[in-house]
Amino acid sequence: MLDKQEYFINRELSWLKFNLRVLQEARNEDNPLLERLRFIAITSSNLDEFFMIRVAGLKQQLESGINREDAAGMTVEEQVRQITDATREQVKKQYNYLKNILQELEKQDIQIAKVEQLTEKSLDWLEKYFHNIIFPVITPLAVDSSHPFPFLASRSLNLAVSLKRSKGEIKTVVIQVPGVLPRLVEIQGGNKRKQFVFLEDIIKAYCFVLFHGYTIQDITLFRITRNADLTIDEDEAGDLLAEVEKSLRLRKRGQAVRLEINKSANRRLQQFISKGLKIGKQDIYEINGPIDVSCYMKFADIPGFDHLRYKQFSSAWPADLVDHDDLFAAISAKDILVHHPYESFDPVVEFIRQAAADPNVLAIKQTLYRVGGDSPIVRALAQAAENGKQVTVLVELKARFDEENNILWAKQLEEAGCHVIYGLVGLKTHAKIALVVRREYGLIKRYVHMGTGNYNGVTSKIYTDLGLFSANDQVGADASAFFNVLSGYSDPPVWNKIVVAPIGLRQKIYELIDREVGFAVSGRPARIIAKINSLVDKEMALKLCEASKQGVRIDLIVRGICTLRPGIAGVSENITVRSIVGRFLEHSRIFYFANGGDGRIFLSSADWMSRNLNERVELMFPVDAPEHIRRIRNNLDLFLQDTQKAYIMKSDGSYRRSDKRAKRLNCQEALLEMARLAAQPAAVSLQQRLRPSYRRSE
Questions:
Q1: 3-state secondary structure 396-455
Q2: Torsion sign over Cα 583, 587, 593, 598
Q3: According to the CATH classification, is domain 1-104 in 3.40.50.300?
């Protein structure tokens, strides 16, 4: 019997352990100082989203009277309680690490100063800054019988101020810290070191000028986090675009789920704030330091301190394209594999740009999930439509926290003449695919790009992803059929190469796992290596345990959440789980099956989560070229032998660092070097020089 609660880990607690692994990078002295500060900011931003979505969802369940157990046997109430305890402990560590980093930065002449630490000359400048820049923007909001507690937007910073006249009663006002101004203000005053002061500290120092006739009794900073999960009834929405825009307006007004407040705040002010926000004591987090340290993300890019950041690198041009200016000719010759950020994302952008300008291109079809800010791909698609090509773009409006961007691009693309569709009712379209239809020698030829990550030039520099260009006829036919399913009423066909969720992907993975079981039972090589962001789906975890029991060796490289416990005798003893946390966010989804000695590789947009397998449009596609299979297989071994950035999960669900006493191997550094050398025509035997040795046991 494999379906036992003790074989599983709670999803939310597993995510918190992932965030803790990210936080540990802020403590790791091998990382440059400003990069350590950036990891502090990343964990803060991660926690915000966790509370806005996951914790908010659990609280909604409790309010609806739902308190069922999860796969690990934890009720909703138990989950909320343990999340609270784990978060408090994690935040405590976060601020301890931050304190140490800021002390080290002072030695490098970067100081986050208190107002009282400034020189007279700096104070003169600061006072002028307050009166000229800050004072015109801020507005005190009284709270009394005729002025109800103001609505405060999610994640906004606010100051609560207690005021008193002589022999009068205490009054309270709220001042919102303006988000339109820099959070960290650089002080001018001739000091040799770089000095910065938090915007809220400046307001606290000078806001007495707002309250003539009153004395400030106390002042404290606080921040509210609200439920940000959108609820959209697509069946009832006549216009999905309008429905998403309406839901976005409601997001900022969601129910409060967390209050962060200065630890030094007096009890009267804390009670005043919590009562006004209708938030319970269990959801109040007292912060011993600056609230909302996600601001350090931008601060870590402070000019003039490159020596405190990772050494800059330029993504290599893919080796298969070094001697090619014509992308279509290169792709026509053979499939081309690209690995970002080690290899440049520019060929993906150029693929759409060349298609937009090429008079032989008749049509472009593409899915867009998260394209980011000023997207060159969106501009190229718009240009293609203006050039008279048939352009169809599926824009996923429900991509969480990117809805506003996607609405903007959808409108711009429509104005340019593109046919914009919003996917299938009830399903998010998470697949990453672009199709170019080209006329060549009187015939039609199709060129396809498929990937594991978004068409986003910004995140492609910090997320690891794989993409495949192909002019294979079967892949092209599949791509055309895929877009017909999305845009019309076509039933899914029998696919040649690709596998699509929610119909077929789970079944295909099960089939591949079963094949490995068959090989193991017959004594042939049987092994699975899966690199994913999350493993949450219970049925998939059980399937892996069944394979483990039959002798299949399974190595899981799971960056984030993993609810399966490895190493349990008779259940998962043949399963290992590790997480790589480093300079780049590991985002690629790769599946290797030994296949009796004839190894197969698949890439996918989908993680092994129920939402990806059951509720999203996802793609999985094979890598057929032997040289690409060897390359990806080698990369997987790099991940498995990393001794610098890997964390190994133990059977109790905790993680330990990989053995740093072993030969030093940072898989991300190795891949950077391999890509750089591969792009040089004179590069020889670099794969052998950097490739880890492994036994072909499978």
A1: CCCCCCCHHHHHHHHHHHHHHCCEEECCCCCCEECCCEEEEEEEECCEEEEEEEEECCCC
A2: negative
A3: no
- Please, where in the chain does CATH 3.30.870.10 lie? 319-495, 500-690
The answer to whether 608 and 535 are in contact (CB under 8 A) is yes
> For position 593, what pLDDT does the model report?
98
Q: Pick the catalytic residue: 339, 430, 449, 628?
A: 430
Topology of domain 109-279, CATH: polyphosphate kinase like (3.30.1840)
Of the two residues 398 and 450, the one the predictor is more confident about is: 450
- Is domain 319-495 given the CATH code 3.50.50.60 in the classification? no
If you search the block for the tokens 């010759």, which residue do you land on? 333
Are the beta carbons of 197 and 184 closer than 8 angstroms? yes
pLDDT of residue 324: 78
Alpha carbons 420 and 240: distance in angstroms, whole number:
12
pLDDT tier at 231 (50, 70, 90 boundaries)?
low
Q: Quickly tell me which residue has 């094979």 as its tokens.
A: 622
Residue ranges of the chain assigned to CATH 1.20.58.310: 1-104
Question: C-alpha angle 547/552/555, rounded to 5°?
Answer: 100
pLDDT in tens, 177-212: 999 999 999 998 766 789 999 999 999 999 999 999
pLDDT > 60? residue 105 = yes
3 state SS of 299: helix
pLDDT of residue 249: 53
> Catalytic annotation on 449?
no
Q: What percent of the chain has pLDDT over 70?
A: 92
Bond preceding residue 525 cis, omega within 30 of 0: no
Task: Give the C-alpha separation, 356 to 376, whole Å.
Answer: 12
Closest CA to 285 of 222, 226, 199, 229: 222
Q: Which one, of 670, 610, 596, 603, lies nearest residue 634 by Cα?
A: 670
Which residue, 660, 495, 661, 519, is CA-closest to 599? 519
- Give the span between the Cα atoms of 90 and 13, in whole angstroms: 12
> Contact, 368 vs 406, CB < 8 A?
yes
Average pLDDT over residues 229-258: 59
pLDDT tens per residue across span 132-156: 999 999 999 999 878 899 999 999 9
pLDDT in tens, 253-287: 678 999 999 998 888 999 999 999 999 999 999 99
Give residue 154's identity as a one-letter amino acid code.
S
Distance CA 637, CA 632 (A): 9
Distance CA 610, CA 613 (A): 5
